[in-house]
Automatic annotation (TrEMBL):
SUPFAM superfamilies: P-loop containing nucleoside triphosphate hydrolases. One of its GO terms (cellular component) is mitochondrion. The lineage of its organism: Eukaryota, Viridiplantae, Streptophyta, Embryophyta, Tracheophyta. Pfam families: AFG1_ATPase. This is ATPase, AFG1-like protein. Residues 64-116 form a coiled coil. Keywords: ATP-binding, Coiled coil, Nucleotide-binding. It comes from Corchorus olitorius. Belongs to the AFG1 ATPase family. One of its GO terms (molecular function) is ATP hydrolysis activity.
Length: 605
């Protein structure tokens, strides 16, 4: 059956200017766009939720209210925790300063002894023992290089503990939340209500979706490794504090070698080093509590298990409060048994630091709102003359409002790459399905598109089948990122949204691989080192990182993509584009700097 979704109100009102209609207010899965995100005192998640219910914008759901109550209670404990963590970080900074001063003093004492010959030649009664040790080392072929330095390092650290005391103990963190449930049940909405309410209460706060978090971890690891390589290439240089000491060059070289060894020890386990910088807000300084809101936790491959376990375990151990969403309970995340020992430790850490709550509603509220909406726009099917004509007509309308001149462009992608955008105009871009999903690109590219373009047109979307399962996987990742960045999406497709993942005459989409993130780092030394050198004890050969999600997990991916595509057609979602998309947030910071800004704001009136 031929069908075109209505675009009349879109064309009449620029892009969108919706009337207050009870037909589209009954929704629980959509993020809280009616809140002023720039408000210095946003409402708490429970009061916000109840206000929206009273206004008729949300349908009351007891499961959602239970989560809102838990989030409100957590919010109430954060203000005192922020103060406690500020005091803790003051003590920690003082301890680190004293420890570093004492460490340098110990090093200088050792260097002075070396310079005097006390440690190199020793006394006569020790010469025989030194010769015996030298002979033993000559005989032994199994002694690991650097053992002497390691013992020296440990002894020095032990002496520092007695001189300065052990690291100050952080105040106990309030338990976070791990919220899981079906697609469209409101998990992300409630988490975002909480995240908005923490503004002004907690300095260090971040919200990540799975794909972006994994890419961020990859990028930070790459930077740390790169810095380590650069530091090794500069080993001939000696720190200024060492050069200024009144020692001979031989003693200074020994000091420099000890300094480098300390840095190498700290780099042995790279994931804690990445975690320590993961949430730091440089402008706010390093003091205070930290909140991580993590949307769609999943374990799609070995790297995800190793990285998430290392990063999140470190953050939780050092006082970060985690609020996370997922389709699965923690113990069900890894149904394929990858890296079981590491995963079980991770689950234990989650259960220790988070309250686990199920949103048990079977209702997909995104679908509910779509059914009750008067106007549905932006999705055109099938790929015939009438639908394509309307799709092209809308493209021309949007481009005229955006400035009228279509050009090709490139946008920066993580890891120093760039992606070519064939057609773009002031925040609007157009692609074919084949261009975005038919070549080896992934979440990093899709994040770049989503951040730079508030409006995206995608043409010629086919019905998904086993023959194009890799393209289908990329398409799901693409939808995730466009949704997470709150882009407006226009599609021309071969079938309706509901039928898009139902398969074709070639067969169903039963064993579609998971929608795992993809980067050029996959299969390279970067990933292999994480698995081969990251204390991975069993399973998951580094040579072939593959997604092994079950058929049920695949269905979560299909259902979420369909649910989000449906929500992205709704008036409430579209009304939030102007306030939530990064393009307009940048414009608000630089308002009035360009005529394009004015045109874009007029288009959303």
């Amino acid at each position: 059956m031929r069908r075109i979704l209505s675009i009349s109100s879109l064309l009449n009102q620029g892009f969108i200017q919706r009337r207050c209609s009870s037909a589209y207010f009954m929704i629980n899965a959509i993020r809280p766009y009616s809140v002023d995100l720039s408000s210095p005192n946003p409402p708490g998640p429970l009061s916000h939720y109840r206000n929206l219910v009273e206004q008729g914008k949300l349908q009351h759901d007891p499961y959602q209210e239970k989560v809102a109550v838990a989030l409100e209670n957590l919010l109430g404990r954060l203000e005192q925790y922020e103060k406690d963590m500020e005091e803790y970080h003051i003590k920690l900074a003082e301890w680190e300063k004293n420890r570093e001063n004492e460490r340098r003093r110990l090093l200088m004492e050792e260097a002075e002894l070396k310079q005097q010959g006390d440690l190199w030649t020793s006394v006569k009664d020790r010469r025989s023992r030194l010769l015996e040790r030298w002979a033993f080392r000559r005989k032994s072929q199994d002694i690991e290089p650097g053992v002497g330095k390691w013992v020296s390092y440990l002894n020095r650290e032990k002496k520092l503990d007695s001189l300065v005391g052990r690291r100050p103990t952080a105040p106990p963190a309030p338990k976070g939340l791990y919220v899981y449930g079906n697609v469209g049940s409101g998990k992300t909405m409630l988490m975002d209500m909480f995240y908005t309410a923490t503004n002004g209460i907690v300095k260090h706060r971040r919200r990540f979706h799975f794909h972006e978090a994994m890419l961020r971890i990859n990028e930070d690891m790459h930077k740390l490794w790169k810095n380590q390589v650069e530091e090794k290439s500069l080993q001939s240089s000696i720190s200024s504090w060492i050069m200024n000491l009144p020692f001979e060059m031989k003693a200074k070289e020994w000091l420099a070698a000890e300094e480098r060894y300390k840095q190498e020890i700290q780099m042995k386990n790279i994931l804690p080093a990445v975690a320590d910088k993961f949430l730091v807000d440089r402008e706010a300084g390093e003091r205070g509590a930290s909140i991580l809101c993590f949307d769609e936790i999943q374990t799609v491959d070995v790297f995800a298990i190793v990285a998430l376990s290392g990063i999140l375990s470190r953050l939780l151990s050092t006082g970060t409060v985690l609020v996370a969403t997922s389709n699965r309970a923690p113990e069900d995340l890894n149904q394929d048994g990858m890296q079981r020992e590491i995963f079980q430790k991770f689950v234990k850490k989650l259960e220790e630091h988070c309250e686990i709550i199920l949103i048990g509603s079977e209702i997909d509220y995104r679908r509910l709102i779509a059914q009750r909406s008067i106007d549905k726009v932006h999705y055109f099917w099938p790929l015939d003359g009438t639908a394509l004509e309307e799709f092209e007509k809308l493209w021309r309308q949007v481009i005229n409002q955006a400035g009228g001149k279509v050009t090709s462009n490139t946008v920066p992608v993580m890891f120093g790459r760039r992606l070519e955008v064939p057609e773009s105009c002031n925040g609007v871009a157009r692609f074919t399905f084949e261009y975005l999903c038919g070549q080896p690109v992934g979440a990093a590219d899709y994040i770049a598109v989503a951040k730079n373009y508030h409006t995206v047109f995608i043409s010629d979307i086919p019905a998904m089948s086993m023959r194009i399962r890799d393209k289908a996987r990329r398409f799901i990742t693409l939808i995730d990122e466009l949704y997470n960045h709150h882009c407006r999406l226009f599609c021309s497709a071969a079938s309706s949204i509901d039928d898009l993942f139902q398969g074709t005459e070639e067969g169903t989409l039963f064993d579609l691989e998971s929608f795992q993130f993809e980067t050029e780092a996959e299969g390279t030394k970067l990933r292999r080192d994480v698995l081969a050198e990251g204390n991975v004890s069993s399973g998951g050969a580094p040579a072939g990182i593959k997604s092994m999600l079950s058929g049920q997990e695949e269905m979560f991916a299909f259902r979420r993509a369909v649910s989000r595509l449906i929500e992205m057609q709704t008036p409430l979602y579209l009304e939030g584009v102007r306030s939530l998309h990064p393009y307009f947030q940048r414009d608000h910071r630089n308002f009035g700097n360009s005529s394009a800004t004015t045109v874009q704001h007029q288009a959303f009136q």
